[in-house]
Design brief:
By secondary structure, the chain is mostly helical. It is 77% helix and 5% strand.
Length: 213
Amino acid sequence: MERTTYIIRKRILIILYVMYAVGVIGHLVAASRDVMLALTPLTLLFTGGLVLYALIRDDSEIIRWSIFTYVFTFCFELFGVKTGYIFGDYTYGDILIPQIYETPLIIGFNWILVILGSIGIAKRIINKPLFVIFVAPLFAVIFDFILEPVAVKLGYWTWENGVIPIQNYIAWYIISLLFTSYFVLLKAKVRNRLAIHYYLIQLAFFMILNAAL
C-alpha cells in the first residue's frame, strides 16, 4: 500500500512539473499564448484535482474542509465582484470559465489549493496550531501578491483604475485565516508534500511570467 501511494505521488509530481514547464513556454511564445490561456481552467482543474486526490487519500477530513472552503470562498468572490466590499472593485475577464454571475467556478477550487499549500509550508516550519493559523495566511497573501500583476496582464481579471488595493491583500489574509482555523479545528492533516510542491510550482510559474511578459 505504501509503495503504491509513493508511486502515485511521484507520478503526480512529475505531471505537475512537466505541465507547468510546458505552460511557461507556451505563455512566453506569442503564437501559443492564446491556446494556453484557453486551457487555463482545465489545467487548474486537472492539476489541482490530482493534488487534492492525493491529499484526500491520506486524510478524508480534507473532503469536508474542501467542500466548506469551496462554497464559502466562491460566495465571497461572487459578493466581492458584485459589490467591491471585500477585495475592492474588480471584474473577471473571459479566461476563467465557466462563470456564474461573472464569477469563475474554478476560483473557489484555487482557494482550496493555495490555502492547503500555505498550511503545508507553515506546518513544515513550526507544526503548532496557533503558528499555523496565523502564519499560513501570510503565505497565501504572498502567493496572491505574486499572482496579481500576471493575472491582470493575462486578462484573468482587471482592477478599477488598474490599481490593486491594499484591501485585497487584507481580505486574502482574513479569508485564509478563517479557513486555516477551520482546518486546524477539524484536525485535518497535510500528510504529503504535494500541496507544497503545487504552491511552489505555481508561484515559480507566475514569477517567471511576471518577469518575462
